[in-house]
Amino acid sequence: MNETPHTLASARTLWELVTRRAALTPGRPVLLQEDRALTFGDLRVRAERVAAGLYGMGVRPGTVVAWQLPTRVETVLLSLALARLGAVQSPLIPYYRDREAGFALRATEAEFFAVPGVWRGHDHTAMARRLGAPGVFEAYGTLPDGDPSVLPPPPAEGTSVRWIYWTSGTTSDPKGVLHTDRSLIAAGSCLAHALRLTPHDVGSMAFPYAHIAGPDYTVMLLLYGFPAVLSERFALPGALAEYRRHGVTVAGGSTAFYSMFLAEQRRRPGERLLPSLRLLAGGGAPRPPELYHAVVRELGVRLTHGYGMTEAPMITMGDPEDTPENLATTEGRPGEGMEIRIVDGEIRLRGEAVCQGYLDPAQTAAAFDADGFLRTGDLGHLTASGHLVLTGRRKDVIIRKGENISAREIEDLLAAHPAVTDAAVIGLPDPERGELLCAVLEHRPGTARPTLAEIVSFLRAAGLSVHKLPERLEVLAELPRDDTLRKVLKYRLRERFSHS
């Protein structure tokens, strides 16, 4: 049979996808990092040897293995080795500390815990010991190794839960999200097909591989047979040299990454930042229309944005061939097999890419409706052409004098102000109004600091209704963000400004 990306997407397991791609293009590179280049053939061989090493340590099909590792070739190999064994793996973001990591280890009852040793000044091994984690081993520069002849057959089906990912847990304990090989392959296929990629592309992973986007992106590489540059710690302009050396054509990750590329381009007027770059793509956070237009205009590339979450890694994705209007104002269309239902303004999901639920059965019962649709907590609507428009989150609706106000609408308008790099609109407690509107702005360097009167005038000129105008303004050098996709942490802003 002649394999294509669409036929490869039918693979029952992630390991089956690895072996089928390795048979097709064994000599093509897949992982590029610093002076290292791993081919698809190498990927299969080395991952199987790591699997044999893990098997010698006692890892068996169904064994729960947690790992907290940065974005490195070794991390990808370890994860695929666990997939080869049919173990249950629980990736943890490298920035998790005692509270989050300890909670995940206890909740999963992990039997092994792979850590990087001392990384970016933090001793992960010492933390693991302090938490009483069993089976601790370091997997930064070296990995377990063994003879693959000792291995049992790889898993034959991909519908068993073998992945436990974690929500951010910014205001409470994180939730353990249950995924299967098939749900991750379905999500990665949606992303890959929507972006219209080719074997000649060169991608990039600028985000933590332990994020749900890690397998998403890996599936994309395996389906289309092209490589990606891995960044252990992405920063600009530092990453540019490696991106240029390998000729990266597709970059991004989330809205914050688009803004980083744009800001760097503005420091180099008249010079093409990355001559090989043709597409920025990502998701995970709102993307203001003005940012889309600025990227296209100033970077000279296309930008496609999508909608996903830990529970459903890829729900919709923009198509590079779509109209500028749709690319600027929507999250694209749902991928094949993804059903979207809007109930009282809330987006609900059903499809193969949706998780199996949570570690806590009570959380699972609360998350799905009677028809098996996942309640996302996000608000939006579908256009006549089938494009999804996000309007905010239920908890992001500000109720002022009984009126529901979407923070997203105001943030999109503020993003167009010349003195604003990014904006977050929050509701603060108020005895008369219920909540008052507070606009928190990330100030663009080199511009005058905006005043509340100026911002109100700007929003009035943009046509914003009077009852949606901010009553308070805070200006920061930088908004607080998480360490994965650089999402703005609004709960920190509420904590900071609620009592000041």
From TrEMBL:
The record's keywords, sorted A to Z, are: Ligase
Q: Does the keyword NADP apply?
A: no
Domain (AMP-dependent synthetase/ligase) ranges? 19-359
One Pfam family, short name please? AMP-binding
Annotated InterPro entries: AMP-bd_C, AMP-bd_C_sf, AMP-binding_CS, AMP-dep_synth/lig_dom, ANL_N_sf
Q: Which domain of life is it from?
A: Bacteria
User: Per the record's keyword annotation, is Methyltransferase included, yes or no?
Assistant: no
Domain spans labelled AMP-binding enzyme C-terminal: 409-481
One molecular function GO term is:
ligase activity
Q: Which SUPFAM superfamilies match?
A: Acetyl-CoA synthetase-like
* PANTHER family, A to Z: ACYL-COA SYNTHETASE (PTHR43201), MEDIUM-CHAIN ACYL-COA LIGASE ACSF2, MITOCHONDRIAL (PTHR43201:SF5)
Q: Which family does it belong to?
A: Belongs to the ATP-dependent AMP-binding enzyme family.
Name of the molecule in the record = Cyclohexanecarboxylate-CoA ligase
Query: What organism does this protein naturally occur in?
Result: Streptomyces rubradiris (Streptomyces achromogenes subsp. rubradiris)
